[in-house]
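ok so i was messing around last nite and threw this chain in just to see what happens. nothing serious, just curious
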Amino acid sequence: MKGLYSALWAESLKVRRSKIFWISVLGFALVAVMMGLMTWVSRYPVLAGQSTLVSAKASFFQDNWSFYLQLLLQIILSLGTIGFGIVSAWVFGREYIDRVITDLLAIPIHRSTIVLSKFIIIIVWSFFLSLILFIFGLLIGWAVNIPGWSFELTYHYFIIFVGISILTILISTPAAFIASFSRGYLAPIGYVISTLILTNLVVLGIPILAPYFPWAIPALIGGVAGPNLPYPGLVSYIILVSTFILGLIGTLAWWRYADQS
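result:
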């Protein structure tokens, strides 16, 4: 246990001193700001000026809290898939990019402990980013005075938001394995972008397969994908948990048995 505490302290120190942590926080906050801005423009279309693109995007927004909070759910699914995957890629891939992997493995802490500490940091970091998005979303929504707010409505969507955020975080473990296997950032970033594209293709083009596609399952569980899509059953939960476990075990096995020299 002492080794885990030491590894967690070292990993947290790396994150706190890194620029990417603050960039990720700023990025998630800015997305919330843009949501509020588009809602404001939808209320006053003249603010869009001559921009056809801005006008078209703003017209999609509805000026009420129910739509606004539903949009937050959709954003955390897409932004989280990429954001949490990049977090996983950075936490594991940076050791190879910085060429400190051999030094890291030389310290008297078991390799599995190091990997577990990294996954704990990924979960905490990713969940913190989710909260940043939701909190800033609320603040911006209040700032632009979106009508129809209520505590009960916000609490309802917050519970769903937390649930799908956790599920999206759990299925980011394969990105950690790919970062370790490829010894860098590029492959896992390409992987998370590909999963987001494939998820949209499956949900929109082959919805019958959505309950069996791991990255579409959080949207189905949260009811974000739409009422016409099938609701996930036991098999969907098994697939989602299996994706998490395979990514975790694969990463643990790679760090323990692969030649890291």
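not much to say yet. The chain has one domain: 2-257.
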